[in-house]
Amino acid sequence: MTITDCPSQVWTCGPDLENFLPPQRETLLRALAGQLRTSACAADQDLGHLEEQLLRGGHELFGQMLEKAAQEKAAAAPPLCPHCQNKLRRLSAGHRTTIQTRWGLIRVERVRGYCRRCKKWRFPADALLGLPEQGTQSPGVQEIAALVVSKMPAPEAEQVVERLTGVKVSAGTLARAARVQGPRAQEKRQRLDGQMSTPEGRHQQDRDLQLQLPLEPFTLVIELDAWNIRERDEHWGQSAALRAAGQEPARWHWAYGGTCFRLNQRAQTAGGRPVILSRGTVMTRGGVDALKEQLWAEAMRRGLGRANEVLIVADGAVWIWNLGGDRFPGARQRVDFYHVSQHLWAVAHTLPPDDEAAARAWVEPLLAKLKADASCEVITELEQLQERLEGAAQERVQKEVAYLQSHRERMDYGTAKKKGEPLGSGAMESTCRQYQVRFKRTGQFWSPTGDEALMCLETFRRNGRWHLLFPHAQPPDPSKN
Fold first, then answer.
1. d(CA 129, CA 109)
2. CB under 8 Å to 47, separation ≥6 — which residues?
3. Given 104, 196, 297, 420, which residue has the most CB atoms within 10 angstroms?
4. Which residue has the higher pLDDT, 120 or 272?
5. 3-state secondary structure string, 296-353?
6. Any alpha helices (H) in 108-220, and if so which ranges?
7. Residue 114's pLDDT is what?
8. Beta bridge partners of 266
9. What is the pLDDT of residue 419?
10. Dist CA 194 CA 188 (whole Å)
11. In sequence order, which residues have a C-beta less than 8 Å from that of residue 263 and are 6 or more positions away?
């Protein structure tokens, strides 16, 4: 095997394939074939049993092959610092490490050297194999950890991984590996978003979109929402003392999200349910300012620079419209129809409060008027109703009138229906609920660092950029976007 002094260049392996085959392969294959034959002849076993035999029985064979190939790769690592490319000094060989892989534990010997520039001992083979600086998990196990821990708590993930792969990876190992991958994803996201802020990055993105998008104009739809996440703080365990001192612990904090998609990528299933074929998602615990920057970069990647118009759909939160006016000036704005209907229902349930049939009979004609772009008539009816009421009922109606008046220009539901545009922000609200499935389980408490890291991992997967974190993973097919 030959290799150049530069680790970024490709080396060529020798033609001898025997180096990658274990000497006892015939014995291992015969044993595995015997297990398969026994299972195939058993009347009470099906294809699942055959699959299980291959999964379990193949570990030893594949593990030995992997160990040989990994050792070949480690031996080819040039004696350069993987961080600064400085030539290593005081080299010594034979340093063995045990690596957790998809096929079980393997052992690899590598060279250690001292980097005078970094003033640290380095193992160049570790970087070549994709091992983390802290830990000995293979890239495949790192990916598994990032994926399953972003979906479920580590103790549950341990059981799932063992059942599906046949390899036991402890909950602690999975948690530690995921904690490493989260910050990696955040750093990668920051670099990707930063590219969208440069003329070169925007130009390249525009060129890429020209190859993907049809020539006809399109509308870019942006939806926003927020949800609460529970976190530990420095006063954890002191709730009783805080309340006794007249302070209420603040353990719930806002996570902010947005999604963007081209209107021509919004279709319907055979049953008539709207479905979005491709979209970008942003989710962050970093506050509105972090959302603002991340969402703008994601919108640029989805065609903001070439969109004929931009439509923002969300509930009535003030921060949303402030963000829209700041980062997406000139965009049309629409308040979510369901949220508006809730405000009308709040009025209906006061007239009288216990008669559901009467409330429905009152509110349904008003909802129909909203869908016909007659929001002014609805507001007028509420103002007339307000004059006839007194006390708490009048105050309630007055509050809802003020809400509708503040969104008078954002209730163009009739126009939306004619154009095939969404009346509400259901896509984003459902996305928030999907994130909450992981973060709001019973007994779950987070830290700002931990929740942001896992959110970032989940968002990379949703946006089809998983392969940027794990290059061995298959990138998505662009023709399906």
1. 12
2. none
3. 297
4. 120
5. HHHHHHCCHHHCCEEEEEECCCHHHHHHHHHHCCCCEEEECHHHHHHHHHHHHCCCCC
6. 124-129, 139-149, 154-165, 171-195, 199-212
7. 96
8. 276
9. 92
10. 10
11. 218, 219, 220, 221, 311, 420, 421
Q: Are 115 and 122 in contact (CB under 8 A)?
A: yes
Domain extent listing, the chain: 1-136, 196-236+249-336+424-468, 339-410
Q: Which residues, at least 6 apart from 26, have a Cβ–Cβ distance to it below 8 Å?
A: none
Of residues 73, 47, 460, 87, the one with CA closest to residue 283: 460
Q: How far is CA 259 from CA 57, 191, 344, 450, in A?
A: 45, 20, 27, 22
Tell me the C-alpha distance between 360 and 367, whole Å: 10
The model's pLDDT over 37-85, given as tens digits with 9 standing for 90+, comes to 888 898 898 998 888 888 888 888 888 899 999 999 999 999 999 999 9
- Beta-carbon neighbour count of residue 137 at 10 Å? 23
Contact 35, 57 (CB under 8 A): yes
Phi, psi of 211 (to 5 degrees): -80, -20
pLDDT at 1 over 50: no
CA end-to-end distance (rounded Å), the chain: 41
**Cis before 329 (ω within 30):** no
Enumerate the β-bridge partners of residue 12. Answer: 2
Sort 90 into a burial class: Cβ within 10 Å, 0-12 / 13-18 / 19+: exposed
Residue 223: CA count within 13 A, CB half-sphere: 23
CB of 456 closer than 8 Å to CB of 193 = no
The burial of 53, by beta-carbon neighbours within 10 Å (0-12 exposed, 13-18 middle, 19 or more buried), is given as buried
Q: State the pLDDT at residue 476.
A: 67
Question: What pLDDT band is residue 280 in, cutting at 50, 70 and 90?
Answer: very high
pLDDT digits (tens, 9 = 90+) for 201-256: 777 776 666 666 555 789 999 999 999 998 877 777 777 777 787 777 777 889 99
420: left (phi over 0), alpha (psi -120 to 50) or beta: left
Do residues 81 and 122 touch, judged by C-beta distance below 8 A?
yes
pLDDT tier for residue 188 given thresholds of 50, 70 and 90: very high
Q: State both tokens at 405.
A: 């008046």
Beta bridge partners of 276: 266
pLDDT for position 2: 39
Question: What percentage of the chain exceeds 70 in pLDDT?
Answer: 92
